[in-house]
Amino acid sequence: MTKADISLKGTKVQPLKKPRTELEPGARRRKKFDDKRQFILETALSVFSKYGFHGTTIEQIANSADISKTNLFYYFSNKEELYLTILENILNDWLKPITIFEEVDDPEDVLKNYIRLKLELSRDQPEASRLFCLEIIQGAPILKGYLENELKSILQDKSKVIESWVSKGKIKPINPIQLIFFIWSTTQHFADFNVQVKAITGKDLSNKKFFEETCSAIQQLIIDGLKRPRL
Amino acid sequence: MTKADISLKGTKVQPLKKPRTELEPGARRRKKFDDKRQFILETALSVFSKYGFHGTTIEQIANSADISKTNLFYYFSNKEELYLTILENILNDWLKPITIFEEVDDPEDVLKNYIRLKLELSRDQPEASRLFCLEIIQGAPILKGYLENELKSILQDKSKVIESWVSKGKIKPINPIQLIFFIWSTTQHFADFNVQVKAITGKDLSNKKFFEETCSAIQQLIIDGLKRPRL
DNA sequence: ATCTTTTCAGACCAAATGGTCTGTTTTAAA
DNA sequence: TTTAAAACAGACCATTTGGTCTGAAAAGAT
């Protein structure tokens, strides 16, 4: 299994899925198997994101998923495979938002949209965000190759879009990578540092008002901070 | 040991320290003891910040510090005490920068200064930053009380300063807490996600040019984003 | 209903790891 | 130089934990 291969497994698209009649042999079993595997993955993400790889016990995960340790090993041959599969799955969702960076569009629209999408991710997948953060902090032993290749080339691509905005005078000059980092850090902050945010504000992104307030605060700062020349 | 008590231990200020003549009995021994303890703490911070609490072995730390496991236990009675002491030490440095928020001053100066100080911390103490981040991500089991009390009240205090700027029309209306979060996240990003930053840009805050570029990018974005009314 | 394959559980194992016990060496004070 | 306390090391211990082995229960296909 290579690090670059980040395709979801076990989610083969069924042609039709006839409701009650017999399907091809083994299909029912496969589905049940895949479903349970998926369930374990979700449970494990939740635990891993709380305690980290080393801090998490296989038994903890098994208990959370209400199965025996042995049963878990029936679905995943070892702890690392389980952890790896989770990380792979996360990466997929992770880069979807950035595809909206397109040259033709208006910077303000694109940026506003992107910020919102990232913030929604922080709201809806905070555990994934934290697991990702844990991985990076600890030196990205697994994802390093991915960062240096796939991610880097995607960012270089999107940088060109931002640069074209600059050269057309649509936004103030700024290092495109820096801009992307700003958006990432400010949005992910509300997932990764969720505990701190909650301790201080008493609120959460799951609070609709707080979400909107945060979203527009970030949008405003960045949009206005990028407004054309200089006052 | 309460969580609120975050005083440095083992750094009692010596009145004078006569160079070679006899000092009070036991002083030499105490200093040697304290120095070695400090050295172990620094080594341990480095290891803990890489692998987290659970991922770190006492033996790893001992090896890194070039002492025996037994010897380490002579200086710290157990793993938790070692970890706790490190966290306490970190917190002290952590809040120094925020004290510069004072009402009388010009917002632009204060904010620029604060951003620079925080970014310097990210450059000079990235390991401390990452350990702090690890702690928060995992639910801040140790620091939660501190966040909800000390930190919260400090922030409420500083919020008033920012609010006064707003009401005087010196900056555009913004939620003060959000502004502070914005600064924290963008500056700490370069310590916590250092690996990612390096993978993509090839650079680091230790690179002087990159540091200055980053610093002024953040400063500009925030200052300009807060400029008076609205274009 | 039967039978074969899949799914699952309990007992068990070996390695890793936090921590202790005992005793030796080093060091500073006298 | 002597001596008592401090600093240190190696063997050892108990627990935790990832992972296996054997066999029983469940379930789909016929």
TrEMBL record, chains A, B:
List the residue ranges of the region (Disordered): 1-27
* Pfam families with a match to the protein in the record: TetR_C_3, TetR_N
UniProt DNA-binding residue ranges: 57-76
UniProt entry tagged with the keyword DNA-binding: yes
Domain spans labelled HTH tetR-type: 34-94
> What keyword terms does UniProt attach to this protein?
DNA-binding
Q: Which Gene3D superfamilies match?
A: Homeodomain-like, Tetracycline Repressor, domain 2
Name residues in a coiled coil. none
* Highest taxon in the source lineage: Bacteria
What is this protein's name? HTH-type transcriptional regulator RutR
Which organism's genome codes for this protein?
A: Marinomonas ostreistagni
Taxonomy-wise, where does this protein's organism fall, top ranks first? Bacteria, Pseudomonadati, Pseudomonadota, Gammaproteobacteria, Oceanospirillales
